[in-house]
Specification:
This protein is α+β, with helices and mostly antiparallel strands and about 375 residues long. It is about 30% helix and about 25% strand. The protein folds into three domains: about 1-80 and about 160-225 and about 310-365, FAD/NAD(P)-binding domain; about 95-150, no CATH class; about 230-310, D-Amino Acid Oxidase, subunit A, domain 2 (D-Amino Acid Oxidase, Chain A, domain 2, 2-Layer Sandwich), CATH 3.30.9.10. It is globular.
């Protein structure tokens, strides 16, 4: 039986970022990747590195997201230097468009709440009127009345990021084990055994980063990961010259010139089929924002399943029953890649999560039912 310092279960963006950070820290790590048979949120990711909508009512989430966005430039530079793969990270700030006065008023109120909740940490934002937006975004539709902007937001190429993390992990001595569906596991403090891919491996530490698969895996290690699927659909246009200088919440232009349109939030279980009615809604709102989009061909469309905790916030935990077992669960694998590779992985390597992650524990969800 092969033995490692740490096993990471889950080869998507969350697991790969953590595994990369562990290998970079000199930890002998194995990364178990179920492969394309998994409900892999990574392959359907919209690609935003997004801060401005994260953490209303949860300032710890706002801080964690900001920290991750701040880690992104160094991570992107490191990955292209070490692997030769450019992950397409740009941080020009981001916009959330509002299509009527009620939307704009509600958005302004939310942004101001987040500024107040941030305390000394601070939260910079601006509300832009239509005139300012029209100068920034040519071809703006007549229904757009304003937008919120923060300097923290950006975007990246999710598939290049996943490829770079895998390659970087292996080049730093990590053991990548593809097509490895977990078929069995045993846990004892500092001694974990996993059966997968026809063999068994062991380690003193284990990280559960298997997305929706964590719901079933976590109890085996004295952990809880009550995550559920939430479907999102995305449309992609043909390539055009650069027309969008910065990303928007539901519209962004990729480095290749295509324009991605999103997104939906559909509570339909594990159904990954595409629904024309939802696609029409996505297209309609996009055309209201930019009428010229109606002249572009849609060349690709897909749906994918987000990994959604009950309250929408990440779950990070370490097992009290089986010390050495950790779990990471979130629906923002791109945004939080910087934090996972540079911060969370270091905590796992040290054997203890930082107290600042305590508010993300699944224990917050253990609220007794009302009688």
């Amino acid at each position: 039986m092969a033995h490692y310092d740490a096993i990471v279960i889950g080869g998507g963006l969350v697991g790969s970022a953590i595994a990369y950070g562990l290998a970079r820290a000199g930890v002998k790590a194995a990364l178990l990747d179920e492969g394309d048979v998994a409900f892999r949120a990574s392959r359907g990711n919209f690609g935003l590195v997004w801060v401005q909508s994260k953490g209303d009512g949860a300032p710890h989430y706002q801080r964690w997201t900001r920290q991750s966005a701040d880690q992104w430039p160094a991570l992107a530079d490191e990955l292209v230097t070490k692997t030769g793969i450019a992950v397409g990270h740009h941080r020009p700030g981001g916009l959330h468009l509002c299509l009527d006065e009620a939307e704009l008023e509600g958005r302004h109120a939310m942004m101001e709440r987040m500024r107040t909740q941030s305390g000394n940490f601070g939260f910079d934002y601006r509300m832009l009127d239509r005139r300012e937006l029209a100068d920034l975004l040519p071809g703006l539709g007549p229904t757009v009345v304003g937008a919120s902007w923060t300097p923290y937001d950006g975007h990246a190429n999710p598939l290049n990021l996943l490829h770079a993390l895998h390659k970087g992990f292996v080049e730093k001595g990590g053991h990548y084990l593809p097509n490895s569906t977990v078929t069995g596991a045993s846990a004892a403090p500092g001694d974990f055994r996993v059966r997968a891919g026809g063999g068994e491996i062991g380690a003193a530490k284990i990280v559960l980063a298997a997305g929706l698969g964590n719901a079933a895996l976590a109890p085996r290690f004295g952990l809880s990961a009550p995550v559920r699927p939430l479907k999102g659909q995305i449309l992609v246009t043909e390539r055009v010259r650069e027309v969008l200088p910065l990303p928007l919440t539901t519209i962004r232009q990729t480095g290749e010139g295509t324009i991605m349109l999103g997104d939906s939030q559909e509570d339909v279980g594990f159904d990954t089929s595409q629904r024309p009615a939802v696609m029409r809604t996505i297209a309609r709102r996009a055309v209201l924002a930019f009428p010229w989009l109606r002249d572009l061909q849609i060349v690709r469309a897909w749906s994918a399943l987000r990994v959604m905790p009950p309250d929408g916030l990440p779950i990070y935990d370490q097992s009290e029953r089986f010390p050495g077992a950790f779990t990471a669960n979130c629906h923002s694998g791109v945004t939080l890649a910087g934090a996972h590779a540079n911060l969370f992985a270091s905590m796992v390597a040290a054997g203890m999560l930082d107290p600042t992650l305590e508010p993300f524990s699944a224990r917050r969800l253990d609220v007794p039912a009302a009688v």
